[in-house]
Amino acid sequence: MQSLNRSRTQSRANRSLSLGGMDFAEPKKKNNFVGKILLTAVLTALCILMLKQSPNFNTPSVFSHHEEGVTHLLVTGGAGYIGSHAALRLLKDSYRVTIVDNLSRGNLGAVKVLQELFPEPGRLQFIYADLGDAKAVNRIFSENAFDAVMHFAAVAYVGESTLDPLKYYHNITSNTLVVLEAMASHNVKTLIYSSTCATYGEPEKMPITEETPQIPINPYGKAKKMAEDIILDFHKNSNMAVMILRYFNVIGSDPEGRLGEAPRPELREHGRISGACFDAARGIISGLKVRGTDYKTADGTCIRDYIDVTDLVDAHVKALEKAKPGNVGIYNVGTGRGRSVKEFVEACKKATEVSIKVDFLERRPGDYAEVLADPTKILHELNWTARYTDLQESLKVAWRWQKSHLNGYGPVLVSSI
Ligand SMILES: NC(=O)c1ccc[n+]([C@@H]2O[C@H](COP(=O)([O-])OP(=O)(O)OC[C@H]3O[C@@H](n4cnc5c(N)ncnc54)[C@H](O)[C@@H]3O)[C@@H](O)[C@H]2O)c1
Ligand SMILES: *[C@@H]1O[C@H](CO)[C@@H](O)[C@H](O)[C@H]1NC(C)=O
Ligand SMILES: *[C@@H]1O[C@H](CO)[C@@H](O)[C@H](O)[C@H]1NC(C)=O
Ligand SMILES: *[C@@H]1O[C@H](CO)[C@@H](O)[C@H](O)[C@H]1NC(C)=O
Protein backbone atom coordinates (compact mmCIF):
# COMPACT_ATOMS: atom_id res chain seq x y z
CA MET A 1 0.00 0.00 0.00
CA GLN A 2 1.30 3.40 -0.88
CA SER A 3 -0.29 6.73 -0.25
CA LEU A 4 -0.05 9.22 -3.06
CA ASN A 5 -1.64 11.98 -1.07
CA ARG A 6 0.71 14.86 -1.53
CA SER A 7 0.85 16.33 1.95
CA ARG A 8 1.16 12.92 3.55
CA THR A 9 4.00 11.67 1.41
CA GLN A 10 5.79 14.95 1.80
CA SER A 11 5.59 15.04 5.54
CA ARG A 12 6.56 11.40 5.78
CA ALA A 13 9.63 12.04 3.66
CA ASN A 14 10.52 15.09 5.74
CA ARG A 15 10.25 13.19 8.95
CA SER A 16 12.38 10.26 7.99
CA LEU A 17 14.96 12.68 6.60
CA SER A 18 15.24 14.65 9.80
CA LEU A 19 15.44 11.52 11.94
CA GLY A 20 17.98 10.05 9.58
CA GLY A 21 20.21 13.08 10.05
CA MET A 22 20.37 12.58 13.78
CA ASP A 23 22.43 9.50 14.36
CA PHE A 24 25.68 11.34 13.84
CA ALA A 25 26.73 11.58 17.48
CA GLU A 26 30.05 9.92 18.21
CA PRO A 27 31.13 11.42 21.55
CA LYS A 28 34.90 11.82 21.83
CA LYS A 29 35.48 11.67 25.59
CA LYS A 30 34.29 8.15 26.20
CA ASN A 31 33.87 8.32 29.97
CA ASN A 32 32.46 11.77 30.24
CA PHE A 33 29.26 10.70 31.95
CA VAL A 34 27.81 14.20 32.35
CA GLY A 35 28.58 14.91 28.74
CA LYS A 36 26.69 11.83 27.66
CA ILE A 37 23.64 12.75 29.70
CA LEU A 38 23.77 16.26 28.31
CA LEU A 39 24.09 14.99 24.77
CA THR A 40 21.17 12.63 25.24
CA ALA A 41 19.05 15.43 26.64
CA VAL A 42 19.96 17.76 23.79
CA LEU A 43 19.26 15.06 21.23
CA THR A 44 15.92 14.21 22.80
CA ALA A 45 14.93 17.86 22.82
CA LEU A 46 16.02 18.18 19.21
CA CYS A 47 14.05 15.11 18.29
CA ILE A 48 10.86 16.37 19.94
CA LEU A 49 11.31 19.74 18.29
CA MET A 50 11.71 18.20 14.86
CA LEU A 51 8.77 15.88 15.31
CA LYS A 52 6.63 18.79 16.44
CA GLN A 53 7.53 20.70 13.32
CA SER A 54 6.48 17.79 11.20
CA PRO A 55 2.85 18.36 10.18
CA ASN A 56 2.12 14.73 10.88
CA PHE A 57 2.82 15.13 14.58
CA ASN A 58 0.25 17.73 15.49
CA THR A 59 -2.33 16.83 12.86
CA PRO A 60 -1.80 13.11 12.27
CA SER A 61 -3.95 12.69 9.18
CA VAL A 62 -7.14 14.60 8.60
CA PHE A 63 -8.51 11.41 7.13
CA SER A 64 -8.09 9.44 10.33
CA HIS A 65 -10.65 11.38 12.37
CA HIS A 66 -14.33 11.98 12.00
CA GLU A 67 -15.05 15.63 11.64
CA GLU A 68 -18.28 17.35 12.52
CA GLY A 69 -20.11 18.33 9.34
CA VAL A 70 -17.76 16.45 7.01
CA THR A 71 -18.78 13.14 5.44
CA HIS A 72 -15.81 10.99 4.51
CA LEU A 73 -16.39 8.52 1.70
CA LEU A 74 -14.37 5.53 0.72
CA VAL A 75 -14.68 5.24 -3.06
CA THR A 76 -13.39 1.86 -4.19
CA GLY A 77 -12.52 1.71 -7.88
CA GLY A 78 -12.27 5.51 -7.89
CA ALA A 79 -9.60 5.45 -10.60
CA GLY A 80 -12.06 3.78 -12.96
CA TYR A 81 -14.57 5.27 -15.34
CA ILE A 82 -17.64 5.62 -13.11
CA GLY A 83 -15.75 5.82 -9.80
CA SER A 84 -13.67 8.80 -10.95
CA HIS A 85 -16.77 10.68 -12.08
CA ALA A 86 -18.41 9.89 -8.74
CA ALA A 87 -15.35 11.14 -6.84
CA LEU A 88 -15.40 14.38 -8.84
CA ARG A 89 -19.04 15.00 -7.97
CA LEU A 90 -18.52 14.12 -4.29
CA LEU A 91 -15.53 16.46 -4.03
CA LYS A 92 -17.51 19.23 -5.71
CA ASP A 93 -20.25 18.67 -3.12
CA SER A 94 -17.67 19.06 -0.30
CA TYR A 95 -17.40 15.43 0.69
CA ARG A 96 -14.04 14.11 1.86
CA VAL A 97 -12.90 11.31 -0.40
CA THR A 98 -10.50 8.40 -0.11
CA ILE A 99 -10.00 6.46 -3.32
CA VAL A 100 -8.80 2.88 -3.06
CA ASP A 101 -7.86 1.27 -6.36
CA ASN A 102 -5.21 -1.16 -7.53
CA LEU A 103 -5.07 0.41 -10.98
CA SER A 104 -5.55 -2.96 -12.61
CA ARG A 105 -8.15 -1.29 -14.81
CA GLY A 106 -8.36 2.31 -13.72
CA ASN A 107 -6.07 5.22 -14.44
CA LEU A 108 -3.75 7.09 -12.11
CA GLY A 109 -4.19 9.98 -14.57
CA ALA A 110 -7.82 10.31 -13.48
CA VAL A 111 -6.74 10.50 -9.83
CA LYS A 112 -4.17 13.17 -10.74
CA VAL A 113 -6.86 15.27 -12.43
CA LEU A 114 -8.91 15.08 -9.23
CA GLN A 115 -5.91 15.91 -7.03
CA GLU A 116 -5.15 18.96 -9.14
CA LEU A 117 -8.75 20.13 -8.87
CA PHE A 118 -8.88 19.56 -5.11
CA PRO A 119 -5.37 20.04 -3.73
CA GLU A 120 -6.44 21.32 -0.30
CA PRO A 121 -5.50 19.05 2.61
CA GLY A 122 -8.24 16.75 3.80
CA ARG A 123 -10.16 16.64 0.53
CA LEU A 124 -8.83 13.67 -1.44
CA GLN A 125 -6.35 10.92 -0.82
CA PHE A 126 -5.46 8.01 -3.02
CA ILE A 127 -4.47 4.66 -1.60
CA TYR A 128 -3.06 2.03 -3.90
CA ALA A 129 -4.33 -1.31 -2.65
CA ASP A 130 -5.98 -4.49 -3.73
CA LEU A 131 -9.40 -5.21 -2.27
CA GLY A 132 -8.63 -8.91 -2.43
CA ASP A 133 -6.02 -8.30 0.26
CA ALA A 134 -8.08 -8.41 3.46
CA LYS A 135 -5.15 -7.34 5.62
CA ALA A 136 -4.52 -4.24 3.54
CA VAL A 137 -8.23 -3.41 3.51
CA ASN A 138 -8.43 -3.76 7.29
CA ARG A 139 -5.44 -1.51 7.74
CA ILE A 140 -7.06 1.10 5.51
CA PHE A 141 -10.22 0.95 7.61
CA SER A 142 -8.29 1.27 10.87
CA GLU A 143 -6.22 4.20 9.65
CA ASN A 144 -9.15 6.11 8.16
CA ALA A 145 -12.44 7.28 9.62
CA PHE A 146 -14.96 6.54 6.89
CA ASP A 147 -18.60 7.51 7.20
CA ALA A 148 -19.73 5.66 4.10
CA VAL A 149 -18.52 3.46 1.26
CA MET A 150 -19.29 3.62 -2.44
CA HIS A 151 -18.11 0.29 -3.76
CA PHE A 152 -17.39 0.56 -7.50
CA ALA A 153 -14.30 -1.62 -7.80
CA ALA A 154 -14.95 -4.64 -9.97
CA VAL A 155 -14.23 -6.27 -13.26
CA ALA A 156 -17.11 -5.51 -15.57
CA TYR A 157 -17.21 -7.13 -18.99
CA VAL A 158 -19.86 -9.73 -19.72
CA GLY A 159 -17.83 -11.39 -22.48
CA GLU A 160 -14.69 -11.63 -20.36
CA SER A 161 -16.71 -13.10 -17.51
CA THR A 162 -17.71 -16.10 -19.62
CA LEU A 163 -14.04 -16.69 -20.53
CA ASP A 164 -12.61 -16.16 -17.04
CA PRO A 165 -15.42 -16.69 -14.51
CA LEU A 166 -13.14 -17.11 -11.48
CA LYS A 167 -11.73 -13.65 -12.00
CA TYR A 168 -15.30 -12.38 -11.71
CA TYR A 169 -16.30 -14.32 -8.62
CA HIS A 170 -13.00 -13.28 -7.05
CA ASN A 171 -12.98 -9.58 -7.90
CA ILE A 172 -16.70 -9.01 -7.50
CA THR A 173 -18.20 -11.43 -5.00
CA SER A 174 -15.24 -12.24 -2.81
CA ASN A 175 -13.90 -8.67 -2.72
CA THR A 176 -17.33 -7.34 -1.76
CA LEU A 177 -17.26 -9.73 1.17
CA VAL A 178 -13.87 -8.34 2.20
CA VAL A 179 -15.19 -4.77 2.06
CA LEU A 180 -18.32 -5.72 3.98
CA GLU A 181 -16.36 -7.49 6.72
CA ALA A 182 -14.08 -4.48 7.10
CA MET A 183 -17.12 -2.19 7.31
CA ALA A 184 -18.68 -4.43 9.95
CA SER A 185 -15.60 -4.63 12.12
CA HIS A 186 -14.86 -0.92 11.86
CA ASN A 187 -18.43 0.17 12.32
CA VAL A 188 -18.89 1.94 9.00
CA LYS A 189 -22.62 2.07 8.53
CA THR A 190 -23.48 3.18 5.02
CA LEU A 191 -22.91 1.26 1.79
CA ILE A 192 -23.79 2.31 -1.75
CA TYR A 193 -23.28 -0.68 -4.01
CA SER A 194 -22.75 -0.72 -7.80
CA SER A 195 -24.93 -3.42 -9.25
CA THR A 196 -26.16 -3.98 -12.75
CA CYS A 197 -29.11 -4.83 -14.95
CA ALA A 198 -27.12 -7.96 -15.84
CA THR A 199 -28.44 -9.42 -12.56
CA TYR A 200 -31.89 -9.69 -14.20
CA GLY A 201 -30.78 -11.92 -17.05
CA GLU A 202 -33.42 -12.17 -19.76
CA PRO A 203 -36.73 -11.19 -18.23
CA GLU A 204 -39.85 -11.82 -20.25
CA LYS A 205 -41.59 -8.62 -19.29
CA MET A 206 -40.29 -5.18 -20.13
CA PRO A 207 -39.59 -2.69 -18.70
CA ILE A 208 -37.62 -4.14 -15.80
CA THR A 209 -38.78 -3.14 -12.33
CA GLU A 210 -36.93 -3.87 -9.08
CA GLU A 211 -39.47 -6.69 -8.57
CA THR A 212 -38.50 -8.43 -11.80
CA PRO A 213 -37.00 -11.81 -10.86
CA GLN A 214 -33.22 -11.86 -10.99
CA ILE A 215 -32.02 -14.81 -13.05
CA PRO A 216 -28.59 -13.79 -14.32
CA ILE A 217 -27.26 -15.71 -17.31
CA ASN A 218 -23.53 -14.96 -17.24
CA PRO A 219 -20.81 -15.03 -14.54
CA TYR A 220 -20.70 -11.23 -14.39
CA GLY A 221 -24.41 -10.99 -13.58
CA LYS A 222 -24.22 -13.95 -11.22
CA ALA A 223 -21.23 -12.57 -9.34
CA LYS A 224 -23.04 -9.25 -8.85
CA LYS A 225 -26.24 -11.01 -7.77
CA MET A 226 -24.29 -13.05 -5.21
CA ALA A 227 -22.67 -9.89 -3.89
CA GLU A 228 -26.13 -8.32 -3.57
CA ASP A 229 -27.36 -11.38 -1.67
CA ILE A 230 -24.43 -11.26 0.73
CA ILE A 231 -25.04 -7.57 1.39
CA LEU A 232 -28.78 -8.11 1.93
CA ASP A 233 -28.29 -11.09 4.27
CA PHE A 234 -25.78 -9.17 6.32
CA HIS A 235 -28.07 -6.18 6.37
CA LYS A 236 -30.98 -8.13 7.90
CA ASN A 237 -29.14 -8.44 11.16
CA SER A 238 -27.33 -5.15 11.24
CA ASN A 239 -28.05 -1.51 11.47
CA MET A 240 -26.39 -0.78 8.18
CA ALA A 241 -27.81 1.67 5.64
CA VAL A 242 -27.68 -0.02 2.26
CA MET A 243 -28.40 1.30 -1.21
CA ILE A 244 -28.07 -1.03 -4.18
CA LEU A 245 -28.09 0.68 -7.56
CA ARG A 246 -28.60 -1.46 -10.64
CA TYR A 247 -27.20 0.48 -13.57
CA PHE A 248 -28.24 -0.01 -17.16
CA ASN A 249 -25.81 0.88 -20.01
CA VAL A 250 -23.57 3.69 -18.90
CA ILE A 251 -22.31 6.25 -21.44
CA GLY A 252 -20.94 9.78 -21.58
CA SER A 253 -18.40 11.66 -19.56
CA ASP A 254 -17.87 14.86 -17.58
CA PRO A 255 -19.57 17.71 -19.50
CA GLU A 256 -16.67 19.98 -18.56
CA GLY A 257 -14.21 17.60 -20.17
CA ARG A 258 -12.05 16.86 -17.13
CA LEU A 259 -12.60 13.10 -17.08
CA GLY A 260 -13.38 10.44 -19.63
CA GLU A 261 -13.58 6.71 -20.22
CA ALA A 262 -10.20 5.14 -20.92
CA PRO A 263 -10.23 1.36 -20.65
CA ARG A 264 -7.03 -0.61 -21.17
CA PRO A 265 -6.40 -1.19 -24.90
CA GLU A 266 -6.35 -4.95 -24.35
CA LEU A 267 -9.95 -4.75 -23.11
CA ARG A 268 -11.20 -3.22 -26.34
CA GLU A 269 -12.40 -6.52 -27.70
CA HIS A 270 -14.68 -6.94 -24.68
CA GLY A 271 -15.64 -3.30 -24.82
CA ARG A 272 -18.95 -1.58 -24.91
CA ILE A 273 -20.72 -0.03 -27.85
CA SER A 274 -19.66 3.57 -27.19
CA GLY A 275 -15.97 2.61 -26.99
CA ALA A 276 -16.25 0.64 -30.21
CA CYS A 277 -17.99 3.54 -31.89
CA PHE A 278 -15.23 5.98 -30.92
CA ASP A 279 -12.52 3.52 -31.95
CA ALA A 280 -14.22 3.21 -35.33
CA ALA A 281 -14.42 6.99 -35.64
CA ARG A 282 -10.70 7.21 -34.88
CA GLY A 283 -9.88 4.50 -37.39
CA ILE A 284 -8.42 2.18 -34.74
CA ILE A 285 -10.90 -0.42 -35.91
CA SER A 286 -12.17 -0.57 -39.44
CA GLY A 287 -15.82 -0.15 -38.62
CA LEU A 288 -18.70 -1.29 -36.44
CA LYS A 289 -20.16 -4.75 -36.54
CA VAL A 290 -23.82 -4.76 -35.65
CA ARG A 291 -24.79 -8.27 -34.72
CA GLY A 292 -28.39 -9.19 -35.33
CA THR A 293 -30.92 -7.33 -37.45
CA ASP A 294 -33.83 -9.73 -37.08
CA TYR A 295 -34.80 -9.18 -33.45
CA LYS A 296 -38.43 -8.49 -32.72
CA THR A 297 -37.87 -4.77 -32.40
CA ALA A 298 -38.96 -1.87 -34.59
CA ASP A 299 -35.78 -1.79 -36.70
CA GLY A 300 -34.62 -5.35 -35.96
CA THR A 301 -31.59 -4.37 -33.85
CA CYS A 302 -31.28 -4.74 -30.06
CA ILE A 303 -32.69 -2.14 -27.76
CA ARG A 304 -30.86 -0.88 -24.68
CA ASP A 305 -31.33 1.79 -22.03
CA TYR A 306 -28.37 4.21 -22.03
CA ILE A 307 -27.74 6.21 -18.89
CA ASP A 308 -25.36 9.17 -18.85
CA VAL A 309 -22.63 8.91 -16.22
CA THR A 310 -23.46 12.39 -14.89
CA ASP A 311 -27.00 11.26 -14.10
CA LEU A 312 -25.73 8.00 -12.66
CA VAL A 313 -23.42 9.79 -10.29
CA ASP A 314 -26.26 12.08 -9.26
CA ALA A 315 -28.27 8.97 -8.34
CA HIS A 316 -25.40 7.92 -6.04
CA VAL A 317 -25.36 11.23 -4.23
CA LYS A 318 -29.14 11.15 -3.79
CA ALA A 319 -28.91 7.55 -2.55
CA LEU A 320 -26.23 8.58 -0.07
CA GLU A 321 -28.31 11.49 1.20
CA LYS A 322 -31.38 9.28 1.68
CA ALA A 323 -29.61 6.26 3.18
CA LYS A 324 -30.99 5.42 6.62
CA PRO A 325 -29.59 3.04 9.25
CA GLY A 326 -31.39 -0.29 9.11
CA ASN A 327 -32.93 0.48 5.74
CA VAL A 328 -32.21 -0.96 2.36
CA GLY A 329 -33.05 0.64 -0.98
CA ILE A 330 -32.75 -1.15 -4.32
CA TYR A 331 -33.08 0.95 -7.45
CA ASN A 332 -32.83 0.63 -11.18
CA VAL A 333 -30.85 3.49 -12.66
CA GLY A 334 -31.87 3.98 -16.25
CA THR A 335 -33.80 6.43 -18.39
CA GLY A 336 -36.79 4.22 -19.14
CA ARG A 337 -36.20 4.97 -22.81
CA GLY A 338 -34.93 2.35 -25.20
CA ARG A 339 -32.60 3.03 -28.13
CA SER A 340 -31.85 0.57 -30.85
CA VAL A 341 -28.32 -0.20 -31.96
CA LYS A 342 -29.13 1.44 -35.27
CA GLU A 343 -30.22 4.61 -33.49
CA PHE A 344 -27.08 4.50 -31.40
CA VAL A 345 -24.85 4.20 -34.43
CA GLU A 346 -26.61 7.10 -36.15
CA ALA A 347 -26.20 9.26 -33.04
CA CYS A 348 -22.56 8.29 -32.90
CA LYS A 349 -21.96 9.24 -36.53
CA LYS A 350 -23.53 12.64 -35.91
CA ALA A 351 -21.65 13.19 -32.65
CA THR A 352 -18.27 12.32 -34.15
CA GLU A 353 -19.00 13.72 -37.61
CA VAL A 354 -17.31 10.62 -39.02
CA SER A 355 -19.13 8.38 -41.47
CA ILE A 356 -18.38 5.15 -39.68
CA LYS A 357 -18.55 2.00 -41.74
CA VAL A 358 -21.20 -0.38 -40.41
CA ASP A 359 -21.47 -4.09 -41.15
CA PHE A 360 -24.65 -5.93 -40.32
CA LEU A 361 -23.98 -9.50 -39.23
CA GLU A 362 -25.66 -12.53 -37.71
CA ARG A 363 -26.87 -12.46 -34.10
CA ARG A 364 -24.32 -12.97 -31.35
CA PRO A 365 -25.32 -15.78 -28.98
CA GLY A 366 -26.43 -14.55 -25.57
CA ASP A 367 -27.70 -11.12 -26.63
CA TYR A 368 -31.29 -10.38 -25.78
CA ALA A 369 -33.60 -8.24 -27.86
CA GLU A 370 -34.56 -5.58 -25.39
CA VAL A 371 -33.37 -4.34 -22.00
CA LEU A 372 -35.22 -1.41 -20.55
CA ALA A 373 -35.43 0.06 -17.06
CA ASP A 374 -38.54 1.14 -15.27
CA PRO A 375 -37.11 4.01 -13.20
CA THR A 376 -40.35 4.86 -11.37
CA LYS A 377 -39.17 3.72 -7.96
CA ILE A 378 -36.06 5.86 -7.86
CA LEU A 379 -38.06 8.88 -9.03
CA HIS A 380 -40.60 8.43 -6.23
CA GLU A 381 -38.23 7.52 -3.43
CA LEU A 382 -35.07 9.47 -4.25
CA ASN A 383 -36.52 12.21 -6.45
CA TRP A 384 -34.00 11.24 -9.10
CA THR A 385 -34.63 11.36 -12.79
CA ALA A 386 -32.32 11.21 -15.81
CA ARG A 387 -31.65 14.63 -17.28
CA TYR A 388 -28.92 13.95 -19.82
CA THR A 389 -31.15 11.94 -22.14
CA ASP A 390 -30.01 13.33 -25.48
CA LEU A 391 -27.98 10.38 -26.76
CA GLN A 392 -26.18 12.38 -29.41
CA GLU A 393 -25.23 15.08 -26.90
CA SER A 394 -23.87 12.52 -24.40
CA LEU A 395 -21.80 10.94 -27.15
CA LYS A 396 -20.59 14.35 -28.30
CA VAL A 397 -19.31 15.16 -24.82
CA ALA A 398 -17.55 11.80 -24.57
CA TRP A 399 -16.13 12.16 -28.09
CA ARG A 400 -14.69 15.57 -27.26
CA TRP A 401 -12.67 14.00 -24.44
CA GLN A 402 -11.67 11.02 -26.58
CA LYS A 403 -10.47 13.27 -29.37
CA SER A 404 -8.32 15.37 -27.05
CA HIS A 405 -7.03 12.29 -25.19
CA LEU A 406 -6.06 9.93 -27.96
CA ASN A 407 -3.79 8.16 -25.53
CA GLY A 408 -6.34 8.07 -22.72
CA TYR A 409 -4.77 9.41 -19.53
CA GLY A 410 -1.30 8.64 -20.88
CA PRO A 411 1.14 11.11 -22.47
CA VAL A 412 -0.48 13.31 -25.10
CA LEU A 413 -0.26 12.04 -28.67
CA VAL A 414 -0.41 14.35 -31.63
CA SER A 415 -2.67 13.27 -34.44
CA SER A 416 -4.61 14.57 -37.37
CA ILE A 417 -8.23 14.11 -36.25
N1 LIG B 1 -19.86 0.65 -17.20
C1 LIG B 1 -21.08 0.12 -17.18
O1 LIG B 1 -21.82 0.21 -18.17
C2 LIG B 1 -21.60 -0.54 -15.93
C3 LIG B 1 -22.92 -1.01 -15.93
C4 LIG B 1 -23.42 -1.62 -14.78
C5 LIG B 1 -22.64 -1.70 -13.64
N2 LIG B 1 -21.35 -1.24 -13.65
C6 LIG B 1 -20.56 -1.35 -12.43
O2 LIG B 1 -19.98 -0.11 -12.09
C7 LIG B 1 -18.75 -0.29 -11.42
C8 LIG B 1 -17.66 0.54 -12.07
O3 LIG B 1 -17.52 0.16 -13.43
P1 LIG B 1 -16.62 0.94 -14.47
O4 LIG B 1 -17.29 0.88 -15.76
O5 LIG B 1 -16.27 2.26 -13.91
O6 LIG B 1 -15.34 -0.02 -14.53
P2 LIG B 1 -13.78 0.33 -14.50
O7 LIG B 1 -13.06 -0.90 -14.89
O8 LIG B 1 -13.52 1.58 -15.27
O9 LIG B 1 -13.49 0.65 -12.97
C9 LIG B 1 -13.32 -0.34 -11.99
C10 LIG B 1 -12.17 0.08 -11.10
O10 LIG B 1 -11.99 -0.88 -10.06
C11 LIG B 1 -10.62 -1.14 -9.89
N3 LIG B 1 -10.43 -2.49 -9.34
C12 LIG B 1 -10.81 -3.66 -9.90
N4 LIG B 1 -10.47 -4.69 -9.11
C13 LIG B 1 -9.85 -4.15 -8.03
C14 LIG B 1 -9.27 -4.70 -6.87
N5 LIG B 1 -9.25 -6.01 -6.67
N6 LIG B 1 -8.73 -3.87 -5.95
C15 LIG B 1 -8.76 -2.52 -6.15
N7 LIG B 1 -9.30 -1.95 -7.23
C16 LIG B 1 -9.84 -2.75 -8.16
C17 LIG B 1 -10.03 -1.01 -11.27
O11 LIG B 1 -8.64 -0.73 -11.23
C18 LIG B 1 -10.84 0.14 -11.85
O12 LIG B 1 -10.24 1.39 -11.58
C19 LIG B 1 -18.46 -1.79 -11.46
O13 LIG B 1 -18.83 -2.34 -10.22
C20 LIG B 1 -19.37 -2.28 -12.57
O14 LIG B 1 -19.73 -3.61 -12.38
C21 LIG B 1 -20.83 -0.65 -14.78
C1 LIG C 1 -4.91 -6.12 -8.60
O1 LIG C 1 -5.53 -7.08 -7.78
C2 LIG C 1 -5.40 -8.40 -8.18
C3 LIG C 1 -6.22 -9.26 -7.25
O2 LIG C 1 -7.56 -8.91 -7.29
C4 LIG C 1 -3.95 -8.81 -8.22
O3 LIG C 1 -3.86 -10.16 -8.62
C5 LIG C 1 -3.23 -7.91 -9.17
O4 LIG C 1 -1.85 -8.19 -9.17
C6 LIG C 1 -3.43 -6.46 -8.79
N1 LIG C 1 -2.90 -5.62 -9.84
C7 LIG C 1 -1.99 -4.68 -9.60
C8 LIG C 1 -1.52 -3.89 -10.77
O5 LIG C 1 -1.59 -4.47 -8.48
C1 LIG D 1 -9.01 -10.61 -10.30
O1 LIG D 1 -8.76 -11.86 -9.73
C2 LIG D 1 -7.77 -12.62 -10.35
C3 LIG D 1 -7.66 -13.89 -9.56
O2 LIG D 1 -8.73 -14.73 -9.87
C4 LIG D 1 -6.46 -11.86 -10.46
O3 LIG D 1 -5.51 -12.64 -11.15
C5 LIG D 1 -6.70 -10.54 -11.16
O4 LIG D 1 -5.53 -9.80 -11.26
C6 LIG D 1 -7.76 -9.79 -10.41
N1 LIG D 1 -7.99 -8.43 -10.87
C7 LIG D 1 -8.37 -8.09 -12.10
C8 LIG D 1 -8.64 -6.65 -12.32
O5 LIG D 1 -8.54 -8.88 -12.98
C1 LIG E 1 -37.04 17.04 -6.52
O1 LIG E 1 -36.06 17.48 -7.42
C2 LIG E 1 -36.40 18.68 -8.09
C3 LIG E 1 -35.37 18.93 -9.16
O2 LIG E 1 -34.06 18.75 -8.69
C4 LIG E 1 -36.51 19.81 -7.07
O3 LIG E 1 -36.81 21.01 -7.71
C5 LIG E 1 -37.59 19.44 -6.07
O4 LIG E 1 -37.65 20.41 -5.06
C6 LIG E 1 -37.32 18.08 -5.45
N1 LIG E 1 -38.46 17.66 -4.65
C7 LIG E 1 -38.36 17.21 -3.42
C8 LIG E 1 -39.62 16.76 -2.77
O5 LIG E 1 -37.29 17.16 -2.83
TrEMBL record:
Q: Which InterPro entries match?
A: NAD(P)-bd_dom, NAD(P)-bd_dom_sf, UDP_G4E
The family database entries (Gene3D superfamilies) matched by this protein are listed as: NAD(P)-binding Rossmann-like Domain, UDP-galactose 4-epimerase, domain 1
Alphabetically, the GO molecular function entries are:
UDP-glucose 4-epimerase activity
Query: What cofactor is this protein dependent on?
Result: NAD(+)
* BP terms from Gene Ontology: galactose metabolic process
| UniProt source species | Heracleum sosnowskyi
The yes or no answer to whether the keyword Electron transport is present is no
- The membrane-spanning stretches of this chain are 33-51
Q: Which family does it belong to?
A: Belongs to the NAD(P)-dependent epimerase/dehydratase family.
Swiss-Prot/TrEMBL keywords = Carbohydrate metabolism, Isomerase, Membrane, NAD, Transmembrane, Transmembrane helix
Identification of the protein by name: UDP-arabinose 4-epimerase 1
> Residues in domain NAD(P)-binding?
74-389
Per the record, the domain of life is Eukaryota
